[in-house]
From TrEMBL:
It comes from Jejudonia soesokkakensis. Its cofactor is Mg(2+). Pfam families: MMR_HSR1 (PF01926). Necessary for normal cell division and for the maintenance of normal septation. Transmembrane segments: none annotated. PANTHER family: ENGB-TYPE G DOMAIN-CONTAINING PROTEIN (PTHR11649:SF13), MSS1/TRME-RELATED GTP-BINDING PROTEIN (PTHR11649). Signal peptide: none annotated. InterPro entries: G_ENGB_dom (IPR030393), GTP-bd (IPR006073), GTP-bd_ribosome_bio_YsxC (IPR019987), P-loop_NTPase (IPR027417). Belongs to the TRAFAC class TrmE-Era-EngA-EngB-Septin-like GTPase superfamily. EngB GTPase family. NCBIfam families: GTPase_YsxC. This is Probable GTP-binding protein EngB. Keywords: Cell cycle, Cell division, GTP-binding, Magnesium, Metal-binding, Nucleotide-binding, Septation. The gene is yihA. Gene3D superfamilies: P-loop containing nucleotide triphosphate hydrolases. Residues 22-197 form the EngB-type G domain.
Length: 197
């Protein structure tokens, strides 16, 4: 898919205030610092469309980006970031779950997983939650540039083993690196296929 335009539309914390039109949207979710905002920038080939930071907790609202005038990418705050206050965490979590439970335009979520880490309970729980809510999701392994190919392969296989304890098959996944544009063509082609259905 060719990206002709990518524009920031709005940030907010309330689903009721999200864009009213009926365009399909794809949400990026995962732990803080996993690379959600960076992946959006990489897919759009725009350095700072979504704000990124080396410090976890950068994205704090629901951010809508309108792509090619007819679909949205949604950048969300991360979950599981220990350094924000308990109260702030609760507020975040509430509007994240509100978003997933109420946003009718949501087509599917990409759950981002740092490929360097072993399966973490918080990510597995979040995938389980999406499943319970009947929200389709796929996985995007991030920061693939940080591992040698063998180690990457090993980690993905370990992840697969873990997920097969809960699901009958491995969810569709993409291997990405925002610094090397890895996975860009695959993810955009996939979104294009869904948009055309
Ligand atoms: P929050 O908004 O805090 O939840 O974080 P986020 O998931 O949006 O992460 P963000 O995109 O801000 O990236 C976090 C850090 O990881 C930044 O320092 C990025 O430069 C770095 N990063 C993101 N993706 C990659 C990648 O593919 N490779 C490498 N090497 N670094 C990455
Ligand atoms: Mg972010």
């Amino acid at each position: 898919m060719k990206i002709k335009s990518a524009e920031f539309v709005m940030s907010n914390s309330e689903v009721a205030k999200c864009p009213k039109n009926n365009l399909p949207e794809y949400a990026f979710i995962g732990r803080s610092n996993v690379g959600k905002s960076s992946l959006i920038n990489m897919l759009m080939q725009r350095k700072s469309l979504a704000k990124t930071s080396g410090r976890p907790g950068k994205t704090q609202l629901i951010n809508h980006f309108l792509i090619n005038g007819n679909w949205f990418l949604v950048d969300l705050p991360g979950y599981g970031y220990a350094r924000v206050s308990k109260k702030a965490k609760k507020t975040f979590q509430k509007f994240i779950t509100n978003y997933f439970e109420k946003r009718e335009q949501l087509v599917l979520a990409f759950v981002l997983i740092d490929c360097r880490h072993e399966p973490q309970p918080i990510d597995l729980e979040f995938m389980q939650y999406l499943d319970e809510q009947q929200i389709p999701f796929h996985i995007a392994f991030t920061k693939a540039d940080k591992l040698k190919p063998n180690a990457l392969q090993r980690n993905i296989e370990a992840y697969e083993q873990k997920l097969l304890e809960t699901w009958e098959e491995m969810p569709l996944y993409f291997v990405t690196s925002s610094s090397h544009d890895t996975g860009r063509d695959e993810m955009l082609a996939y979104i294009n296929t869904i948009n055309e259905q």
